[in-house]
Amino acid sequence: MDLGIKGKKALVCASSKGLGKASALALAQNGVDLTICSRTPEAIEAAADEIRSATGVTVHAVACDITTPEGREKALAPFDAKIDILVNNAGGPPPGNFRDWTRDDWIKAVDGNMLTAIDLIKATIDGMIERKWGRIVNITSGAVKSPIAILGLSNGARAGLTGFCAGIAREVAKDGVTINGLLPGPFDTDRLRGNMKIQAEKAGVDFETFFAQHGAEHTAGRFGTPDEFGQTCAFLCSAHAGYINGQNLLMDGGAFRSTL
């Protein structure tokens, strides 16, 4: 399927690996020119080289901390903030017990997983409105729909972003701009494997056995793949998804049990 977005310009945040990189690659496969960013220069340059080689599109690699004003300015600079597609993405705050979290912990979580995305939307959405076309996808978490107690910092900050976007999505739909959330469950990424290695070590079991067992116990009988996540993100950014707006698509293989 031709997604109808060849020649569009996208900013994909936190895209040196994992779901962000998969989303950037899927957009590039459909002819979208990219700015990708992450904190580590070597990792983001390697990702850019890989995507350029695979697709031939223009890829600007920016090493920055997207949670800072200076970082956002650097990430927006290659296309002079004239972005057609914005994919907001950021690593989640650490797990823990809410009794241990300080105000500084909460501010850091809200800055990273709510206010950063809002600031990038603010910087790009008026240009989308003027051009009468734009796509904004927020990669958040399945915990937005099914909260996880030890991820309270993430639950709160990401739910705040979701609520904010629910309001403005309805204001810009008439201008050809859509805003949606893409909510991942467990995907086979370096982050998932790293967390599960720690769990396997604590349980005193072989990691590969532990990983395979937990995948088999999932509703889908496996973990998701970054590629299928990236392709779904690209579709939400496509010309065919203009009537999908203000939604939060849960990608968890059916693990969340709900009739609606």
From TrEMBL:
InterPro entries: NAD(P)-bd_dom_sf (IPR036291), SDR (IPR050259), SDR_fam (IPR002347). It holds the Pfam family adh_short_C2. Gene3D superfamilies: NAD(P)-binding Rossmann-like Domain (3.40.50.720). Belongs to the short-chain dehydrogenases/reductases (SDR) family. This is SDR family oxidoreductase. The lineage of its organism: Bacteria, Pseudomonadati, Pseudomonadota, Alphaproteobacteria, Rhodospirillales.
